[in-house]
Q: What sequence folds into this?
């Protein structure tokens, strides 16, 4: 299983906005410095805005900014906004997708793994990502 470019880029954009949250709205150009193509970024920011994670500000000094504090924005919310709900197999969310769903031992494994991944993603915030970077930099500088 791999996270799509859409999910990764969405997370890069959200991290950038969180990092620059006290500097006012950020332009597409500045957010694109994360390596996300500018044209693609508009689409991603639209999804994040509809999910309530990003606010857009119009006008000459306009741009995008994070809608909630970083420590209240989970990685699961970002991934859901970019990819939709995470499920390792269609049968974990739709019993009707397989006539053997109720008796399938593999389905139960996919359900447990899906729940575990979602629980982990819900337990990590953008704020936690700042701490991870700080810890890594401290280790490298020792």
A:
């Amino acid at each position: 299983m791999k996270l799509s470019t859409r999910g990764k880029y969405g997370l890069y954009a959200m991290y950038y906005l969180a990092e620059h949250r006290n500097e006012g709205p950020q332009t597409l150009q500045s957010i694109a410095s994360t390596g996300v193509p500018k044209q693609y970024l508009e689409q991603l920011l639209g999804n994040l805005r509809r999910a309530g994670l990003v606010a857009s500000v119009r006008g000459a000094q306009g741009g995008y900014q994070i809608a909630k504090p970083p420590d209240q924005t989970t990685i699961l919310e970002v991934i859901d906004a970019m990819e939709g709900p995470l499920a390792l197999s269609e049968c974990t969310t739709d019993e009707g997708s397989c006539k053997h769903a109720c008796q399938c031992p593999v389905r139960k494994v996919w359900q447990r793994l899906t729940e575990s991944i979602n629980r982990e993603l819900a337990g990590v915030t953008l704020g936690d990502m700042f701490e991870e970077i700080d810890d890594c930099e401290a280790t490298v500088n020792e």
Q: What stands out?
A: Helices lie at 5-19, 28-31, 38-50, 75-83, 105-122, 126-140.
